[in-house]
């Protein structure tokens, strides 16, 4: 997949201030502020920056952490993972494979009956579309 690149000014023009802060500046939305828990049924979550499909609603679960959680991305080509030592922690950052938007982090404390992973994703980085 070819990388989509834009200038900071172009991203600011396209995104809200909160979307820009989270996706382009590696921010984090406040917990329990996303409306992703309201989505039910079949559907896809797309990157708010470049529209790439990232996660399926059927792989979302309630981790109780305050952020949308998924046990896997749509495909390994959908996201990239990078080692992150910011804030004095050792974590794995998750970014959109197409535009490098910061999405959140992945942790090894997800449902053991599936992948065992918890993709803890900022809802403001996602655009949900139900299947038709």
Automatic annotation (TrEMBL):
Pfam families with a match to the protein in the record: SelR
Tagged with keyword ATP-binding: no
Cofactor(s) listed in the protein's UniProt record: Zn(2+)
SUPFAM superfamilies associated with the record: Mss4-like
Swiss-Prot/TrEMBL keywords: Metal-binding, Oxidoreductase, Zinc
Group of enzyme by EC: oxidoreductase
Residues the entry annotates as binding Zn(2+): 47, 50, 96, 99
Catalysis: reaction(s): L-methionyl-[protein] + [thioredoxin]-disulfide + H2O = L-methionyl-(R)-S-oxide-[protein] + [thioredoxin]-dithiol
Cofactor note: Binds 1 zinc ion per subunit. The zinc ion is important for the structural integrity of the protein.
Active site per the UniProt annotation: 120
UniProt domain MsrB: residue ranges: 8-131
Domain of life: Bacteria
Matches recorded under HAMAP family: MsrB
Protein name (database record): Peptide methionine sulfoxide reductase MsrB
The organism of origin for this protein: Halomonas cibimaris
């Amino acid at each position: 997949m070819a990388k989509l690149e834009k200038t900071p000014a172009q991203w600011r023009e396209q995104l809200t201030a909160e979307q820009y802060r989270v996706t382009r500046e590696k921010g984090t939305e406040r917990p329990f502020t996303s409306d992703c828990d309201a989505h039910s049924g079949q559907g896809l979550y797309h990157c708010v920056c470049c529209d790439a499909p990232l996660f399926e609603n059927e792989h979302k679960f309630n981790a109780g952490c305050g952020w949308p959680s998924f046990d896997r991305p749509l495909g390994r080509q959908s996201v990239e993972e990078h080692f992150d030592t910011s804030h004095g922690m050792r974590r794995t950052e998750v970014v959109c494979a197409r535009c490098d938007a910061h999405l959140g982090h992945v942790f090894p404390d997800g449902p053991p009956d599936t992948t065992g992973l918890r993709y803890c994703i900022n809802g403001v980085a996602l655009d949900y579309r139900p299947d038709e």
